[in-house]
Amino acid sequence: MWKLLFPSIAMIAITYAFARFSFGLFLPSITDSLALTERQAGISSSSAYLAYTVALLTSSFFIRTFGQKRVIQFAGLTAVIGLFMISGSYHFLMLASGTFIAGLGSGWASPAFSQVVVTSLEEKERDKGNTWINSGTSFGLILSGPIALLLTEQWRLAFAFFGVVALVVLIWNSCVIPVKKSEVSKVTFFDRSILAKAKYLMTASLIIGIGSSIFWTFSRTYLTAQYSMGSHESSFFWVIMGISGVIGGIAGVVIAKLGLRISYLLAVVVIAASMYLITIASVPFIYLSAVLFGISYIFMTGLFIVWGSREFSSMPAVGVSLSFLLLGVGQTVGSAVAGELIQVTSFPFSFISFSFVCLLGLLVPVKITTYET
């Protein structure tokens, strides 16, 4: 199993942590270098989430047309191209274009890997396999943090390095991921029966997407602007978040013990608390915020994969795509709104507001209605 999981985890690390979320890590330096406004920074980040949404909308079609391995290769290739474009950006439009291309990979990778899990792992291993692959984001954050610490001012070199690593991971996956056929339904996301079955999953994903967006995009900027933290301290915050996120990889085990509903409710409370704690001007609370967000976000996304895979057991790529689609829509809207809100109010008010958005997730029922084709 692990021979398959290791390159899969590495690809998720590249497409999520390096190609999407690391932008927030380097945002202060990029903003200074390119003289971006908070609005432009928000738009640049949102373009990655928009690409993520577009990729999710096309993922099932691509998997059905080209096969799961080819789609994984597409994901790796866009990450490579996008990262090198960001590295070479000298103005806002090129930067936004680079983040858009880089963002495509994450939207294709997760659904494709959910199909790989179905075709390559035994049923008893699938929840564990899905959630460990999803934890690749955390491993990517662990690596990107020290790189940001060493190359904070040389962000172009950092993204070029990310691009080289992405190329290596693309080759690794091309050599290891097996070519296997999987039956992917020809239903579309606009099928009423699909949307009706997934309404609770989609609602929960949208809420968490909106709520978490501010943390991914502006947490490090918050630390430097509000608390005058240096690059060492803010980079350590990012590494702590990544290390903690690895714990979220046990989501499959926790769900098996507590059930999907209790696991979901606990994760909602923890992710909301993490965004509130960063507003408390105390070093222990600030780093506790990183710990709780890292654990709860990776746990929550792993939970959404399990939820979507169970609800659409015969075609998990559709369930995962729907969940992550709404997560991406929420992050696209949320990131842009967060930039505007910070600009007209303050960092603390904005983070607390988004914390309450996450708590709305407690109102969403957790029900599984298996979809049959």
UniProtKB/TrEMBL annotation:
Superkingdom as given in the UniProt entry: Bacteria
Q: What name has this protein been given in UniProt?
A: MFS transporter
Cite the SUPFAM superfamilies for this sequence: MFS general substrate transporter
Matching entries from PROSITE patterns are given as: MFS
Its annotated compartments are: Cell membrane
Question: What organism is listed for this UniProt entry?
Answer: Alkalicoccobacillus gibsonii
Q: Which Gene3D superfamilies match?
A: MFS general substrate transporter like domains
Record-annotated membrane-spanning stretches:
43-62, 74-93, 99-119, 131-151, 157-179, 200-223, 235-255, 262-279, 285-306, 318-338, 344-364
Q: Per UniProt, which keywords does this protein have?
A: Cell membrane, Membrane, Transmembrane, Transmembrane helix, Transport
Q: How does the protein associate with the membrane?
A: Multi-pass membrane protein
Name the principal localization, coarsely classed: membrane
> Taking every annotated instance into account, which residue ranges of this chain make up the domain Major facilitator superfamily (MFS) profile?
5-373
